[in-house]
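Justification of resources, computational component.

The compute hours requested in this renewal are based largely on the per-chain cost of generating structure records like the one below. Each record pairs the submitted sequence with a full structure-token output. That output is archived, and it is also reused by downstream analysis tasks.
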Amino acid sequence: MATRVIPPRILRKLRYNTATKPFQPALTSPALAPTSNILDQKPPSSTTTLLPPDAELNFHDVEKLFSHVPTTKLLKSTAILHATAVEPMVDLGTWMLRSDLMQTNNPLRNIAMATTRATFFDHFCAGEDAITAGKSIAGLNEAGLRGMLVYGVEDAHDNAGCDRNLKGFLHTVDVSRSLPPSSVSFVIVKITAICPMSLLERMSDLLRWQKKDPSFVLPWKQDSLPIFSESSPLYHTRKRPEPLTAEEESDLDLANKRFLELCQKCVQANIPLLVDAEHTSVQPAIDYFTYSSAIMHNKGENPIVFGTLQTYLKDAKERMLLASKAAEKMGIPMGFKLVRGAYMSSERKLAADLGYASPIHNTIKDTHKCFNDCSNYMLEKIANGPGGVVLATHNIESGKLAAAKAHELGIGKVNHKMEFAQLYGMSEALSFGLSNAGFQVSKYMPFGPVETVMPYLLRRAEENRGVLAASGFDRQLMRKELVRRVKASVL
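The structure output for this chain reads:
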């Protein structure tokens, strides 16, 4: 078997974690050492090298594409992707995990949890604790990828829950800093986990009303970037909201302090913080937190605080342009993660219930166009100035277009201002294809106890059922590589 080496792009000094220990080119932990089982061995291949930066994404050479994936993992991934592509099976699984079977005193609960842990959790999550997540990150690094590490908690409804979640996010920064330099590209935070949901809803109402009536004063509001555009939906707030109560202002002060502590921790660790997007009923408040913190912490060329734009929203591009141009005037480098979006059904239902048109693009073609247009704008912007962009897409065509645009602008190869991203356990072919072509690629990696991460798994199963069902491209390539390996072992 030929000697395999870590791709040169991983050995380069990248943007972040410059104060941490040097990258180790081999996995030194005994727990991570490969076994002698033939199924766990990686396939024979020549020494890994970078393709020229102007090479097209190559999905034809499946041996090269999956050269970092052991056969056991390839088999398991193929089986799980086939299972999640069957919508009735996803429906059955989500029903079961929400049913009385999951009650603590039900004897079947342990069986259900063990099955979930060994299948879907293991495939879509980085692990149950920080140590396991670190091993998962190390495995990605060996394959030429990076990790976006997220403590997998969902919404909080009181200050006690917010405080617990903050500790988890702060610990995530510590874990990230302990790993090899640049192996973690971002720490992810959900504002809904560190600020009570009811307060975010109230703040969003007040911000929307101020958009309707600029004379409406919000005494608690700090400097921010534009949150709304002229086409932004304001139908959530149908009447003038009452000002925040003294208790709500106190809760907001606590939420500000939590987010400030997390931002300062990321600044000290030199690891960027990426704020996840949510549904439109609370997104204005999330954008407010993001932009006010960006003004405070983003300096020089590279932003520390990144926001997320969901391009399935009709107003996404307009909001991005307004915020980006305002940041430029203030001398603030702004970073955005671009995604298509994850709340299509609920957003359309809410709008219909209130008697308004959906805020979501009418066709998938329009959504693709919006994502690609926003990608082009951000790539042109970072090619000529400060800022950063994360292109979070599972769409092969968008990946190809962005890669071509980046090369056209001269920002191909590994570039500290640009990152592609996919969810952990999904779109492996696109991730490896982009990485092999010389781009930085990260996987979104939630971690935490199964019980804690279960809401995340359920939400992902429901939000991404279309993506999972359409994972035929990955499944086809994985099957092709498995067949190739079987033939190679026989012959």
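The radius of gyration is 22 Å. The chain has one domain: 8-17+70-490.
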